[in-house]
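Predict the 3D structure for this chain.
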Amino acid sequence: MAADMPTTFFGWVVFIINQYGSALLQGAGVTLMLAIVGTLIGCIIGLLVGIVQTVPVTERTNTGLKILNKIVQFIFAAYVEIFRGTPMIVQAMVVYYGSMAVFDIDMSAMLAGFLVVSVNTGAYMAETVRGGIISIDKGQTEAAMAIGMNHFQTMYTVVLPQALKNIMPQIGNNLIINIKDTSVLNVISVTELYFASKSAAGVYYRYFEVFFVTCVIYFIMTFAASRLLRYFEKRMAGSADYQLVGDPMADPTGIFPNNTKMGGK
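Done. Predicted structure below.
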């Protein structure tokens, strides 16, 4: 048996791929599922928290609503600071083991993983959304309010469509971070890529070769995610050129002929 073992680095790499390639790919699939679902749910959490954090309070606001707003703002601020100020690996241990110890909930490792990635991403996205909302010119919000829109209507129809384009790079950054950071979930026995790699490496004690393959898989996932997100960013940005509508009323002056390109070379 020993005579059949590889003797070179790349020989071991090929051997590891042949022996444990399917297990590593399954782990990579779990990693992607945790990262994508966790990022999506985290973005929803971040949007809700970010919108509430920007609710305006004026002198005309009811006293009860002012008190309620302060309580909610305090809770959300505490949520953001706690989950941004503690490591995800510690959060995973607290959620997984604490759910049973404190609430007597027998939570599966995968459910705990989804929960941790989601709320952690939500804490970072809340600040990103808040910054994106603030970056939009206040005149647009004031104009929306002037025609009778409330805060949430203004956010949904006017501010968020513009803010979303501004925060897309950060959403992509969070996805890439989550692809890598899900590796910490191995401490609660989530069978993601790092967990599968550690198990494979322990069989033959070939840690360098196994984690070299793992490194390549992580790079492929993050590189593909970054290219895909860059594509969506360009699609959302739109074309640098635009055309006047072929309707005489679109140009009552008659200066520009139909189908004239503007804004581009």
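The two ends are 69 Å apart (CA to CA).
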